[in-house]
Each structure stands twice: as structure tokens, then as C-alpha cells.
Design goal:
Blueprint: E1 2-6, H1 15-21, H2 42-54, H3 60-67, E2 72-78, H4 87-105, E3 110-116, H5 123-126, E4 128-133, E5 136-144, H6 162-172, H7 186-198, E6 203-206, H8 210-215, H9 217-225, H10 227-243, E7 261-264, E8 270-273, E9 284-286, H11 291-299, E10 303-306, H12 308-323, E11 330-333, E12 336-340, H13 342-350, H14 362-367, H15 371-399, H16 406-433, H17 437-450, H18 457-460, H19 464-470, H20 472-481, E13 488-493
Parallel strand pairs: 2-3, 2-10, 3-6, 10-11, 12-13
Antiparallel strand pairs: 1-13, 4-5, 7-8, 7-9
Helix pairs in contact: 2-3, 4-20, 10-12, 13-17, 15-16
């Protein structure tokens, strides 16, 4: 059972991306992909083959086809989240493979490259995982590791804290897998987990691979040579986005100064580069604004698939591609999918709940379905409140000439009365909507599954929990149902 819902109903979705999907190409073109001629340095090809082999993937033939320009190249990427990260990570990989398989069914060879954002330094985001508690779908259990001085380190090279692994294994009640062996870092753990599930249909790219950094040296040289022009171009585009009513994805540090590059020290700690200077390429780390440029310069993809934030990055830096002589790929939005057991998805049909209504609270949703009773409760409560207010005011009129200190007490009483009348009315409404206990329980479970803690499921819930329950069926369903580059998301019943 699958439901399709317009992305306009996905809470907090980037409005620029919505307009772009509907054809507004002022800031980012909506183009078809064109197969480009490419010739990739053999040293980089060999390094990618070796690193993938270390993670359990045999991709040498696919790499050769990609390097010679014999296939359409599709690229995406993601932070190396603990335990595979949230559900949208899996949806992103599914989008890449869906497009690859669609191309191959039409007779066009395709290669998928997945960029492991090992250079990111957001330790708090990477070192956490939330999952539904088994047999208690209403509860989320979140596992987090302490920063402990990791704030500037490139997370891909940071060993996973043993306490986090221990909590993970105890929560899932599983034996320790090799991708969580003692001392493994976040980058290798993520790569080995993905490799174990998707096999050699995907090529993993370590963003910190020295050969990749060396291949990016001409781009780094161009950025240093045109540093101020680049900052001005980004500032100009940001103003254009603001004038059009959008919020730029990246804001300047001060005035019109943007973060363009970092330098890595021997501990892989990132230090902001505030202007042009000589740095060996292996020590250079990109920011959110320059990562797409490095990726597209070195990997030379025909298609890039990313989330709404990544699409917005492209809009903010689009003018830099011509300035730096980097061909821009076709940019596409990843598919958005939420998942739930089929019995939970069926609650929508049984209780006549529209998919877009699940992004609220059970009380609010059901209150909207009891309009007559709710209106009557509120009308009676308001009438009683007004009548009591009049009587309190009359008491004040009678007593104030004799007791002026009573004014403050009356003011406090009015505030208390208004507060408690509102609480009484809301409590009565909750009682009204709970009178159908089965419907209330079903609605609560539905919303807790798709909108836990008032966050959209795919943003916060780790996919590994669903993998343990559904296995390959989860992956197959996502690849089959996901619809990249469309203005809708899906709710999939498993």
C-alpha cells in the first residue's frame, strides 16, 4: 500500500525547491542530462578500486567504464551517520539506484557514485541515532555520544565511541557486526554497512581520499586565484534569492565573507581558511558551498541527486561553475519516502485521515473531526467565562471604594480564571475526541510512526531498525516506489 502526497504538505520543506520543481528555473536550470566525454586519471581510479575493495566491494570494471565515459554517471552523497544514519539516507541511495535501473532498462549503462562526506565536522549530528522502541511504536529511543573535544575533527576519521556501540547492540539485541568492530571510525563503519546491503551496484567515494584531493588541485588553485570574485558572486546570488523571497542556504560569516575552504591538520582537525594561501591539496577540505564544485570537477557526473538543502546549495553557487570552468551536472531532487507497517498505513483509509493530516497531534487531528461537539464546548466555556468576569468586575466595583488593595487581587483572579477556563475547555475537548478509544489509539500510533516528536519520520528515525524488521524487502520497496525529482513524497506500507 503506497500513498503519494504533494511535497507542499511535507512540514518545513524548502519553498525555493518547491518552486524550482514546478518550473521556476531563474536560479538553477531544470535540464535533461547529457552524457559527457570524460577521462579520469588512472591513479584516482585505482585508489577508488582499492578503497572499495577494503569495504568489501568489487567495482573495478564499473570504475573503468565510468573513467572512460562509457556510462551515465549519477552522483549523490551523505554524512557518514552512525548506524547508517536517518531514513532519508536510505531514500537517497534508493533514488540513485532507481535512476540507474531505469536508465539501464532503456539500454543506457549507468554508474552510481556515492560521496561519503567524511570531512564534515558536525559530530553531534553524526554520532546519534533514534529508533522506535520494539513493540512500542509510540516511543523513540535516541542514542548519542558526547562531543568530548571532537567539534572540529573531520568525523570520518573519528573512532566510534565504544559506549555508543554498546548501547546500540544492547538496544537491538544483536551480535556485534564487523562494521562496528572495536576502534572502527565513522567513515569505515558507514561504508561497510552500506556495502553489505547494496553490494557492488554502488561505488563509494571517500571525500578525504588523498588521490581525490590531488585531482582537485586545479580547482583549488582557481578558487584561491579568484577568492574575492567568488565571494562577491555568492553574495550577489544570495541577494537575488532574498529579493525573490527565498532564504539563501548558507549565510556569510560577516558582511559578504563566506566560508570557502578549510585546512586539515595532522589530526584531521579543520581550520577555516580566511583567504588565499599555499596549502597542499591533501590538506584542503571543502565547505558546503565548495563541496559540489570539487565533486563535479573530479567525478564529472552527468546527474547529481540530492536533498532539498543540496539543491539550494547549487542555486546559491550556480554562477561559480562558469567562473571556475566546472561543468554543472543535471541537478535532481532525491525521492522522499516515509515507511510504516501496512496495518498502520491502513488506518488512514479506515478512519478517513488524509495523508497530509498526519503532521499534527492526535488531539488536534481528531478535534478537527468533532467540529460540532468542540464548537459547543468552546461556546459554553466562553459564555461561562464572560459571565464570571462580569461578576468579578461587579465585586470590584462594590469593594474598591472601601479597599483599594483589592484591585491587584482582582486582576490576578481574572488572569487565573481565564487560564483555568481555557484549560477546562481543552480538557473537555480531549475527552470528547478520546471517546472513541480505538480510533484515538490508531491515530496516535499513525502519527507517532510518521511524525514522531513532531518531526517528519525520515529526518530523525534511523533506517537500521526497519532493516532489522523487514530486511531486503525494505530496500526493494524503497527502490521500486521512490520517485526522484518529483514534487511529491510517498508513504509506503511494508
Amino acid at each position: 500500500m503506497t500513498l503519494r502526497v504533494p511535497l507542499e504538505h511535507y512540514p518545513g520543506f524548502n519553498r525555493f525547491v518547491i518552486d524550482w520543481l514546478h518550473g521556476d528555473a531563474r536560479f538553477l536550470p531544470r535540464t535533461e542530462h547529457k552524457k559527457r566525454a570524460r577521462m579520469i586519471d588512472a591513479t584516482l581510479v585505482e585508489a577508488l578500486a582499492d578503497s572499495n575493495h577494503r569495504w568489501g566491494l568489487s567495482v573495478k570494471d564499473d570504475l573503468q567504464r565510468w573513467a572512460r565515459g562509457q556510462s551515465i554517471t549519477i552522483v549523490g552523497g551523505q554524512q557518514v551517520g552512525f548506524g547508517g544514519g536517518p531514513l532519508y539516507t536510505l531514500a537517497k541511495i534508493a533514488s540513485l539506484l532507481k535512476m540507474k535501473r531505469d536508465l539501464e532498462r532503456s539500454g543506457t549503462p549507468a554508474t552510481v557514485l556515492f560521496w561519503l562526506a567524511n570531512e564534515d565536522h558536525d559530530f553531534d549530528e553524526v554520532a546519534q541515532l533514534c529508533a522506535p522502541v520494539r513493540n512500542r511504536q509510540l516511543d523513540l529511543h535516541c542514542m548519542r555520544a558526547s562531543r568530548s573535544g571532537q567539534s572540529k575533527l573531520a568525523v570520518g576519521r573519528v573512532p566510534i565511541p565504544e559506549a555508543l556501540i554498546t548501547e546500540f547492540l544492547a538496544f537491538y539485541e544483536i551480535e556485534r557486526p564487523s562494521w562496528l568492530r572495536e576502534g572502527i571510525d565513522f567513515g569505515d563503519s558507514f561504508a561497510e554497512l552500506v556495502a553489505s546491503i547494496f553490494g557492488s551496484e554502488i561505488i563509494l567515494v571517500d571525500a578525504l581520499l588523498p588521490e581525490l584531493r590531488r585531482a582537485g588541485k586545479p580547482l583549488f588553485d582557481s578558487i584561491f586565484a579568484q577568492w574575492q570574485d567568488i565571494e562577491r558572486a555568492i553574495a550577489n546570488r544570495s541577494r537575488e534569492l532574498i529579493d525573490a523571497g527565498y532564504s539563501p542556504q548558507v549565510l556569510p560569516r560577516d558582511a559578504e565573507s563566506y566560508s570557502l575552504l578549510f585546512e586539515l591538520d595532522e589530526r584531521f582537525e579543520r581550520h577555516l581558511v580566511d583567504g588565499p594561501r599555499q596549502i597542499v591539496p591533501e590538506r584542503i577540505s571543502t565547505t558546503a558551498l565548495t563541496r559540489p564544485l570539487l565533486q563535479d570537477f573530479v567525478l564529472q557526473p552527468d546527474i547529481f541527486i540530492g536533498g532539498p538543502a543540496e539543491v539550494a546549495y547549487y542555486a546559491q553557487i550556480a554562477s561559480l561553475y562558469k567562473m571556475l570552468n566546472v561543468p554543472m551536472p543535471r541537478v535532481a531532487l532525491r525521492g522522499h519516502t516515509l515507511v510504516a507497517p501496512k496495518r498502520v498505513v491502513r488506518f488512514m483509509e479506515r478512519y478517513e485521515i488524509r495523508p497530509e493530516e498526519v503532521f499534527t497531534s492526535p488531539d488536534d487531528l481528531l478535534a478537527a473531526r468533532e467540529p460540532e461537539g468542540v464548537t459547543q464546548i468552546r461556546r459554553e466555556a466562553e459564555a461561562a467565562r464572560k459571565d464570571l468576569m462580569k461578576r468579578i468586575e461587579r465585586i470590584g466595583e462594590l469593594a474598591l471604594p472601601a479597599e483599594h488593595a483589592l484591585a491587584r487581587a482582582i486582576a490576578r483572579s481574572i488572569g487565573h480564571v481565564e487560564y483555568h477556563f481555557n484549560k477546562l475547555a481543552e480538557r473537555a475537548i480531549r475527552g470528547l475526541v478520546r471517546k472513541d478509544k480505538e480510533r484515538y489509539a490508531a491515530t496516535r500510533e499513525l502519527l507517532a510512526t510518521l511524525y514522531p516528536d513532531r518531526h517528519v519520520q525520515d529526518r530523525v528515525v534511523g533506517w537500521y531498525a526497519y532493516w532489522l524488521e523487514y530486511g531486503q524487502h525494505l530496500v526493494d520497496s524503497l527502490i521500486e516506489e521512490t520517485e526522484p525529482d518529483t514534487a511529491s513524497f510517498k508513504i509506503i506500507g511494508l
